[in-house]
Amino acid sequence: MYLDNSATTKISDEVLEEMLPYLTDEFGNPSTLYSIGRESKKALEEARQRIADSINAKKDEIIFTSGGSESDNLAIKGIAFKLRKKGKHIITSEIEHPAVKESLYFLESLDFKVTYLPVYENGIIKIEDLKEAITPETILITIMHGNNEIGTLQPIEEIGKIAHENGIIFHTDAVQTFGKVKIDVEKQNIDLLSVSSHKINGPKGVGAIYIKKGIRLIPIIHGGGQERGIRAGTENVAGIVGFGKAAEIATSKLDEHAEKLSKIRDEIVEKVLNTIPESYLNGDVNERLPNIANIRFKAIEGESLILLLDAKGYQASTGSACSSNKLEASPVLTALGLDPVDVHGSLRISLAPESDEFDVDEFVDVLSEAVQRLREMSPLWNQELDYDGVMCKKHDDCRMC
Ligand SMILES: *Cc1c(COP(=O)(O)O)cnc(C)c1O
């Protein structure tokens, strides 16, 4: 049972089927003039229309990239370089994806100033903090739509409104929300938006950036004039076609999927919190993605839990895929103000539309058993029980008591 869909998803059969011709006979370069090239160009433009339609944008406001990371880099560096003479201040949140965070660290090395807004215990920024952070030097606000570790949603419509009232450009990383939560770039006051294909049952290595008409930025990949000169390089036609199809499916079934997934998610959370002592949900209960639950267990080492679950056939993760091979504490969970020990004891479960056949009871049983087993071996847990005046189960051989 695969429960790590925030890290990546499986390509759906319909998507693969639509891609196959462009990996075989329809191999033309979209920039050429003869018929096979024109076919590729046509497929490319159809996919562009599909992406545009899914966020209420116009076709020529969509630029294809290699994925969410490149879109984030292009948005942030592209605007910073373009507007560097106007100001060098950028506002973001403490829980951004590394693609945003590292782009900002890089800009800091070039003398840009960045304000990182706190997200508090519920994982959401406060609008007052945003208003206070704005200076005449502020050129860009980049705040993600939905968080990849805890699933919390930021008030992007309001953030965009405040940005525009102050003549500031607003970018949002919508990689986790695209296809799962309604996005309307007009209504939500968005200037730049990053999306990725492999988080919505499309292929890896393809994504897009929405750039509102009239917004200018400096490219980061220079070369041939593809993508209106904003992103050079021969287009990943098959990938783009697959992305377009995945976006169309996700958007047309958005409500249906959201309802189904949030029901499973809520059932998991409820059963886990009720069954496993000292377990807590991370992040706001209401303002969240339908498919992510992040739960922490007292006195548990997350990595050990992952391995025990894997041995029972469940694949979940402690946090983001990008940081799980480093042993540092998750910066997202740390930003919630959690104790470092608690940060290490968190589990992220992320679902996809095909997670239908998920037997919640069975999963909670396995999880509960794993947590219990780890706690029996945990000096922390035993110490904690003793500290609270409760005898640990193995009092005789407990080292801490
Ligand atoms: C996965 C992810 C990215 C990176 O997208 P890639 O296509 O893997 O480069 C960026 N932001 C968020 C929130 C993500 O979840």
UniProtKB/TrEMBL annotation:
The active site is at C322 (cysteine persulfide intermediate). InterPro entries: Aminotrans_V_dom, Aminotrans_V_PyrdxlP_BS, Cys_deSase_IscS, Cys_deSase_NifS_bac/arc, Cysteine_dSase, PyrdxlP-dep_Trfase, PyrdxlP-dep_Trfase_major, PyrdxlP-dep_Trfase_small. It comes from the Archaea. One of its GO terms (biological process) is [2Fe-2S] cluster assembly. The keyword Cell wall biogenesis/degradation does not apply. GO terms for cellular component: L-cysteine desulfurase complex. GO terms for molecular function: 2 iron, 2 sulfur cluster binding; cysteine desulfurase activity; metal ion binding; pyridoxal phosphate binding. Pfam families: Aminotran_5. Residues 1-363 form the Aminotransferase class V domain. The keyword Transferase applies. It is found in: Cytoplasm. It catalyses: (sulfur carrier)-H + L-cysteine = (sulfur carrier)-SH + L-alanine. Master enzyme that delivers sulfur to a number of partners involved in Fe-S cluster assembly, tRNA modification or cofactor biosynthesis. Catalyzes the removal of elemental sulfur atoms from cysteine to produce alanine. Functions as a sulfur delivery protein for Fe-S cluster synthesis onto IscU, an Fe-S scaffold assembly protein, as well as other S acceptor proteins. In Archaea the pyridoxal phosphate cofactor is not covalently bound to Lys but ligated by other amino acids. This is Cysteine desulfurase IscS. It comes from Methanobrevibacter millerae. The lineage of its organism: Archaea, Methanobacteriati, Methanobacteriota, Methanomada group, Methanobacteria.
